[in-house]
Amino acid sequence: MTTTQQMRASLALLLFPICTSAQAVDAGAFRAAAHAYRTAHEAEILREFTDLLAIPNLASDNTNIRRNANALVQMLEKRGVRARLLEVEGSPPAVLGELPTPGAQRTVVLYAHYDGQPVDVSQWATPPWTPTMRDGRIYARSAGDDKATIIAVLTALDALHAANLHPSVNLKIFFEGEEEAGSSHLEAMLRRHHDELRADGWIFGDGPNHQTGEQQVQLGTRGVMGMELALYGPNRALHSGHYGNWAPNPGALIANLIASMRDDDGHIKIAHYYDDVKPISAAERKAIHAVPPVDVALRRELGLAHTEANDAPLTERIMLPALNVRGIQVGGVERLAANAIPTEARASFDFRLVPNQKPARVRELVNAHISRQGYFVTSDSVTMAVRLAHPRVARVRWTEGGYPATRASPDDPFARAVVRAVADGKGKSPIVLPTMGGSGPLYLFEQVLGTPIVVLPIANFDDNQHAANENLKIQNLWDGIEVYAGVIGRLGAYWH
């Protein structure tokens, strides 16, 4: 056994004690039922999956988003799950399913979202809403993010019913319809439907599995904020020979401003930025060190000789705040290059937050930093009068929909129970990751509903999430069905 394997085994024993033999038999029955049902109904399962993937699912496409929601209601009712639409003014519908279990002491909500990211059809090898199977994968928008979880949950219910096995908890199922559009109506929906959504815990079926292909359970997500920045030079482009070294160059200005905000190792240089960051706990460090190392292989695959912070492990880096420069626009390059001083430069950023960081405080710190660099900071349109009144002007606009991070403790009873139930469904202990690098509005469920949350992904890590040619490995769907069968059938045995 390698050192890493020993650490993982030690962590599993510490956090999630070994089941008794009777429990192991029960666990095997749920996993076996899922496997048997899947192998006997593969064509039927894939047909239902591809039918769902074939419905376009942009949250802004009201007609098709309702087609998705109505189809999901029918799919739930087909399994004997009481289902209906939840809405607030202006929102896409969410789908709520309820399946009570006689004698169950706990209620869990299984979450997935059915909307998807926008598409540039020209970038796809096959049409995004014409599901295509090749090389053991299904290619379609939302194949991995996030309709696979929907099918895994529903098929797990089919498998348990066919084997005359029963859930160990009361089930609620919540399918959101605007997660990829920022969940702008989610808080209002949770508050209006608070009583219907009351539960003891939520399991979020979103995101990819570990880069090794191993099943993982994630205990949180980073928060996220977006910012658009514009800096200004002359109000018309100027000849770089006649006016260079005289007229301010917005391209150089924005490069220097970005360099003042972060260094090449990703350290954020904004004053007091780390003051609110919650320290990593001993239990979280233990979990981090137990995760199989993938950095060397990832660097080779991605063509990176080195990564930030002297090749610090990815699992450590995603526990920290991040400032990402997601785009810079100024002048032209190559055949569009001109010997001219451009009129303005723009940059787009996303900030990934960790526990205890608040979006309002981050905005305050970033705006103050830009001001200290000599800029007049405004969110308004920049007029000629503003340009003439200030030597340097920065238009800073923060995008709507930012939110804080959330992270459960590895010692939380719900988290421990989910990990053990996932192990029953998978047949071995999953990787426990304190946080995923991506973001989701999980904080709303904690703040509004007051329930603990755990993230349970099933998609392959290379699913081209949010990009062209999004895909799901079919084996990940088969494995996901067994995982959710274990969770539905075994969670109540461990959750006390």
Notes on the structure:
- This protein is of the alpha/beta class.
- About 40% of the residues lie in helices and about 20% in strands.
- It contains 17 helices and 20 strands.
- Strand 14, helix 14 and strand 15 form a beta-alpha-beta unit.
- Helix 2 crosses helix 15, helix 5 packs across helix 17 and helix 6 runs parallel beside helix 16.
Walk me through the topology.
Blueprint (H helix, E strand, L loop, with lengths): L2 H13 L5 H20 L1 H12 L8 H17 L3 E5 L7 E6 L7 E7 L18 E3 L2 E3 L7 H16 L7 E7 L9 H7 L8 E4 L11 E3 L1 E13 L5 E2 H4 L6 H12 L20 H9 L4 H8 L5 H4 L2 H4 L4 E8 L10 E2 L2 E10 L5 H14 L3 E3 L5 H6 L3 E6 L7 E2 L5 H14 L4 E3 L2 E4 L2 H8 L3 E3 L15 E3 H21 L2
Parallel strand pairs: 3-6, 3-7, 7-19, 8-17, 9-18, 14-15
Antiparallel strand pairs: 1-2, 2-6, 4-5, 5-20, 9-13, 9-15, 9-16, 10-12, 11-13
Helix pairs in contact: 1-9, 2-5, 2-15, 2-17, 3-5, 5-17, 6-16, 15-17
Can you tell me the CATH superfamily of the largest domain? Zn peptidases
Largest sheet, in brief, is:
7 strands, mixed
Mean pLDDT: 93
> How many structurally independent domains?
2
Evaluate the radius of gyration.
25 Å
How would the global form be characterised?
A: elongated
Ranges where pLDDT stays below 50 over 5 or more residues in a row are 1-25
CATH architectural name of the largest domain: 3-Layer(aba) Sandwich
Overall number of strands: 20
The proportion of residues forming helix, as a percent range, comes to 25-40%
What fold name stands as the CATH topology of the largest domain? Aminopeptidase
End-to-end C-alpha gap: 33 Å
What is the CATH level 1 assignment of the largest domain? Alpha Beta
Number of helices: 17
Structural class: alpha/beta
What share of the residues does DSSP label as strand, in percent? Answer: 15-25%
